[in-house]
Amino acid sequence: MGAGREALVDRAQAVLAEAEAEWQATLAASAKAPPPPTATATATAKPTAHPTATAKPTVNQANAPCPGPGLTRRCGGVCVNLQTDDRNCGSCGSVCSGGKHCDGHMSCRDANGNL
What we know:
By secondary structure, this protein is α+β, with helices and mostly antiparallel strands. It has 2 domains: 1-30; 62-115, no CATH class. The chain is 27% helix and 10% strand. It has one helix spanning 2-32; strands at residues 72-75, 78-81, 101-102, 108-109. The strands form 2 sheets. It has a two-stranded antiparallel sheet with strand order 1-2. The radius of gyration is 41 Å and the shape is rod-shaped.
C-alpha cells in the first residue's frame, strides 16, 4: 500500500503544479490585457436634499388654477376671485378705491353702480 499511496501523492502534486502554472499564466495575461469595460451611469439631474420616487412637473404658482366659484387666480400666492375681490378686481393688483367695490363683473363701482 505504501507504493500506491506514494503514486497518488505524486500525481496530486503534479496536478497542483499544473493548476498553479495555469493560474500564473492567466494572471500574467490579464496584467498585460486592458481591463474589461465597466458600465458607468451618467447622471442627468442634480441630486436633491429630499429625493422623490417620481418626478412631478413644476407648476408656476402665479398661474396655477385655484378652486372655488367665479374667476379665481393666484395673486401674490393667494387664491382670489377676480370678480369680487376689491384688491384684485379684474386682475391682480387692480384695487377699487374711493369707496368702490368689485361688482362681480370685474369692475369697480360705487353704491349707485357708477364706475
